[in-house]
Amino acid sequence: MIDRQEVMDFSREFGLTANVVEKDYVLGWLLAGISSHPELGSSWVFKGGTCLKKCYFETYRFSEDLDFTVIRLEHQDRGFLINAFKEIVNWVYDAAGIEIPHELISFEIYKNPRGTRSVQGKISYRGPLQPGGSLPRIKLDSYRR
Predict the structure, then answer these.
(1) What does each of the 145 residues of the chain score in pLDDT, given as a tens digit?
(2) CB-based contacts of 40: which residues, under 8 Å, 6+ apart?
(3) DSSP secondary-structure letter at 113?
(4) How many CB atoms lie within 10 A of CB 126?
């Protein structure tokens, strides 16, 4: 895992707060985990502001959430998502040392204003800036096409 000093160095270099740098780092690893997942990697379509920043414009605004379009209805089942994300966060921990406690992964199923089934996930993590206490969170939104 990137250490606290590296986060602080990047923060100064890019003129960003350290929390933004840390979250961007964790978002990148979470995306890598989703991409490597055998079911989600090939069937979730990454979109939104974080997609623009990560894939196309390095200097685009830093975002705090991940947005996806999902193709398969079963990928909007709370039980499926909890199990899939337990696998993903285990992969992230093994690859990068970022701790994402299983008990702090949650998903809410709801109908959005257009009447489409949607999911909002909240995933808390322990990065180099947060050795203890209240953990920062990443929001994940998915919509079915």
Answers:
(1) 889 999 999 999 989 899 989 998 999 999 999 999 999 998 998 887 777 777 777 766 677 788 888 988 888 999 999 999 999 999 999 999 999 999 999 999 999 898 888 999 999 999 889 767 789 999 999 988 7
(2) 34, 75, 84, 88
(3) T
(4) 19
Domain ranges of the chain: 4-144
What are the Cα distances from residue 130, in Å, to 9, 37, 99, 100, 137?
17, 26, 10, 12, 11
Task: Round the CA-based radius of gyration of the chain to a whole number and report it.
Answer: 15
Which residues neighbour 2 within 8 Å (Cβ) at sequence distance 6 or greater? 25, 128
Q: DSSP state, 62?
A: P
Give the three-state DSSP class for 13: helix
CATH number for domain 4-144, candidates 3.10.450, 3.80.10, 3.30.43, 1.10.10: 3.10.450
Global pTM? 0.88
